[in-house]
Structure formats: structure tokens, C-alpha cells
Amino acid sequence: MVIRRAIVACSASIVLLLSACTFGSSSDEASTPAEPSPKPTVFEQKFSSDTRGEAATLSLSGKKTNKNFRVDNIGLSLESTVLADRRLDPEASNLDYLLNSLGSPALRFGGNELDRRLFWTSDHASPSKSDQVVVTPEDLKRLKKLVDVTGSTVTMGIPLGTYAPKQGVDMAVHTVDILGDSLVGLAIGNEPNGYKVKDVPNGAVRGNDWNKEKYVQQLEAYAKAIHAKRPDAPIIGPEVYDGAWMDAFAHSDVKKKSAISQHWYQLPECESEKVPGRGPEAQNLVDPLAKKSAQKNLGIGKDHADDAGLPLWLEETGPTSCPGTNDTSLTNASALWAADYTLYAAQLGVERMAMHSMLGACEGGAPMSLVCDPADHGTRSDTFQGRPHLAAMRLLVPSTGGTFTRTAVKGGGNMSAYTVRKNEGETLVTTVINANDAAKSGGNPVSFQMPKGFSVERASQIYGPSNEAKNATSVIPSNPLPDDIPYSGGEKSAEASASTSTGADELKIDIAASSVTVFIMTKT
């Protein structure tokens, strides 16, 4: 655990010192940001036009709530067949660098391929189907090398598509033994409520008689056999979006339950072009309806988790799981959404989150992935790059380990803000998501009402020329504020800790539209 904490601190420093770069391009800039020349020494924004947006007042409190932003609130979910990819080895690719830039992100292995294509063997057995992917203990050892470098915790799926408890238990035992305390959960099956669905890759895996009762019966059989060999193995479930199946898992006789695991995607209505709505349109990611949908659907998981006395883990999520939506996932809106959604979910009580991703091609691969391979589709390279929402997730690392405080936003149009308290109240980190479109206004004048005695030490930002701009999300590295702080709303702040007669400290600053900005404040 000491090693993991050291890695977290180091990774946070990486994020704070990120050079200016653009995410989502076809080059490898995102994986190896170039040093700007000259290197910036102050935080300087780039406004698309005049800051004529609605003025906003942000009132920050130093009093903590009972909700935390954990290291595991930033994470990746990968298909279980990725375990066979040699590029998980830190010596075989730059994946460890990208993961470290996210702190010590949660890693989850599952997905539809778990029950349909993964073939586990520890004795060199051969799969019965040609499209199956063989996974062995050697692959788990390679994963262990990765998590030793990143400090990540892991949840691992165990196949249940075909009832094969001997094989499943063998995989579980090897996973426990190899990953050690990096393993925080075994998920038996992936989305068992969808086992009868035919219109998914590789189709249905169970017959029409499959139901919650049979799931519980087989879940209990697997868990009992696993615990006979490894009594402390942590079990999570049910890896679904359906509350009834969450109850089925929670009320089962499975021992060592660690969490209720939920799946949910922001824009699931693949045929819809309605705006605002829940179809895969970029505007829908930043419309206020998105937050209302998240509150409703994650609330289902949180209610069931609370009833069971377990934490809620969002083990598979993302902007949309619809095919053919690369354009939506590559927009700057996806970055704004990722920052807002991640913080909002944590504030609702989600304690672990994993954005579903892949290690495939940037062109033609899964659209919602945080990372991708710039090599031509059908080929591979050892240099991954980040998509726009990876840039947003990087900005959130300084907030990890913090406890949310109250942050009130008045005015500002489509603007949200979150604050966490760290270092026994000596540090506040505020993230401002300005989802007003830079295509219409350069930004908004914002007045920060900070608790007395605080001043802004550093700020960093991601931004784009508009919400819908593709492959154009750029990073402004963390630096102190300039002496002349831009503000179009009236009287400027003399400095970042300008005193007011209210007993609070105030910062007046223009914030670029289509951006996410992180302000780190310390008590002076």
C-alpha cells in the first residue's frame, strides 16, 4: 500500500505538469506531449472570441460532506480477452505511461467477450471454437507486472456464459494467487440479464429458460467452490443495469460480497437523433438532461447498494456503447462530459468507476475508448494515444483522495463546479466545467468566493474551439495565475487572494467556454 500511495503522488505530479498538447489526433502527440517553446510559466487561456457569456458566481465552502473522490473513481474497463495482449507488459508498450497519468486508475476486465470468446486454461488445453481467445496464468502474470507499476486495483470477470465451474474456479484461484492484494473483486459473469439477447456479437449464450433464479443458483455454486479453495476471495456483482438482478445478487448466499456492480452508458438510444435526448449526438453529452439521466439511473444502483450495505461500483460505463459513433466520442463535448460525469457520479456515492475502453485502432475501433492504437486498422503498434476524454480524466487526478465540499454556482449558463478538500483542509481543488459553446462565446466572467485565507496556487485546463470540434481538445499545463488576470465582468481582482468585505477571499477571472479548468487553492 505504501508503494501504491507513492505512485499516486508521482502520477498527480505528472498531470499537474502536463505540457500543452492536443488529444485525439492521428499522431502520437497525446502519448508523448511536446514541450512548448518557450515553456509557459503562468496559466494563460486561449479564448476563441470575446468573453460575452453570462456572468457566474461560484461560492466555495471548506466544510466537507460525507462523499469522497477516490483514486478508483478514475478507471478503465477492458474486454477480458485483452488479457492475452502482450502490450499489457510495461516493457512492450507505453500503456503504463498513459495509466500512470490517470493516477492509479481502477482496472476492470470483463465485457461481452468474457462469456462468449474467452477460453481459460492453466494446462494447455485447446479451445473448441476457432474465434475463442486463450487466456492463461502467464497472461495474469503480465497483468501483475502492469499493476505493480501503476498501483492499480483490479476487478476480474469469471466466465458464466457456459456453466463450467471447474474452469471458472481454476481461473479465479489463479487470479487470487497472482494478483494478490491488487485484486479487489471477482465478477462471476458479465451482464447475465442479457444472456438470452441475440443481437450482440456472438449472440445469446443461454436458452429461453434462463432467469434470475438460475443465475443465483449458478452464482452460488461458483462462489462456494471458489471459497472452498480461497476463502477470502472478494465477489462483486451482478454487472448489470437492472435493479432486480442487483437484488438477486444481494440476497444470494454468496459470501465475501464486496460491492454491487452496475453498468450504465450515458447515451444508449442508438437510433435517436433527438436533441436534447439520449441518442449519440455530441450536444446530448453536455445538455443538462445528461445529468438528470445519470442521477436517475445511478440512483437505482445506489439505492440497491445501500439496501445491501455494500458500496456501488460502476464497473462499465462510457459516453455511448452505440456502434458507428466515433465522431461523437472524438468531440470536445466528450471531454467536458467525462469530467462532469466522473465527479458527479462520485458525488452521488459511486466509489469506483471504469470507462469501457479497448486497445484497438483509433480509426475503426470502439468509439468510446479512452485510449487507442494509431496504427492502421488490422495492425498493431506499441504506442497508444489518448482520446479527448482521457485529457479530461487526467485533470481530475489532483482531486483524488479529497472529500467533496459544497460548491454553489449562480448564473453562468451551462456551467458546473465541484470542490474537494484535501490535506486536512489546507488545500481545496475546484473543477469548473464550462459547457457553454466556444463557437458562440469566448467564455464567461466568473467570481470565485473562496473561504477566508485561501488563494489560488495553480490552474490547468483543457479546452476546444467548440463543443463539437473533433480531435481538437488541447491542454494548458498547470501554472500560477498571471499578474494580470483576464476579467470582463467589471472590477478585476488585484491578485488571486483579493480580500472582500464579506470575510471571504475572491478571485475574478474569465473562464474559456468549451473547457474544464482546475484551480488548486491553498490556505495562506
From TrEMBL:
<dbReference type="InterPro" id="IPR052974">
    <property type="entry name" value="GH79_Enzymes"/>
</dbReference>
<dbReference type="InterPro" id="IPR013780">
    <property type="entry name" value="Glyco_hydro_b"/>
</dbReference>
<feature type="compositionally biased region" description="Polar residues">
    <location>
        <begin position="468"/>
        <end position="477"/>
    </location>
</feature>
<dbReference type="InterPro" id="IPR017853">
    <property type="entry name" value="GH"/>
</dbReference>
<protein>
    <recommendedName>
        <fullName>Glycosyl hydrolase family 79, N-terminal domain</fullName>
    </recommendedName>
</protein>
<feature type="region of interest" description="Disordered">
    <location>
        <begin position="467"/>
        <end position="503"/>
    </location>
</feature>
<feature type="signal peptide">
    <location>
        <begin position="1"/>
        <end position="20"/>
    </location>
</feature>
<feature type="region of interest" description="Disordered">
    <location>
        <begin position="28"/>
        <end position="48"/>
    </location>
</feature>
<keyword id="KW-0732">Signal</keyword>
<feature type="compositionally biased region" description="Low complexity">
    <location>
        <begin position="488"/>
        <end position="503"/>
    </location>
</feature>
